[in-house]
# Entry
Amino acid sequence: MEATEVAELVKEALPGCEVEVQIDGNHYLVVVVGDVFEGLPTIKRQQLINKALFQHIVDGTIHALHPKAFTPAEWAARQG
# Structure
């Protein structure tokens, strides 16, 4: 599964978010930045990303998913 396909699935599930996907074999690092994560704990944020890709996790297309979710302010602070 291509990075662009993964990004589109996440964008469909979480409209208005910026999505970056890095792939190493069948390990996927998915970074999502959006207001939707405001006030949510880390686990809830990850669950939103996991839900968008659930079918591909279940069928083995995505073996390992590493979701990272940030609000725009959190992302800006990380960028220094």
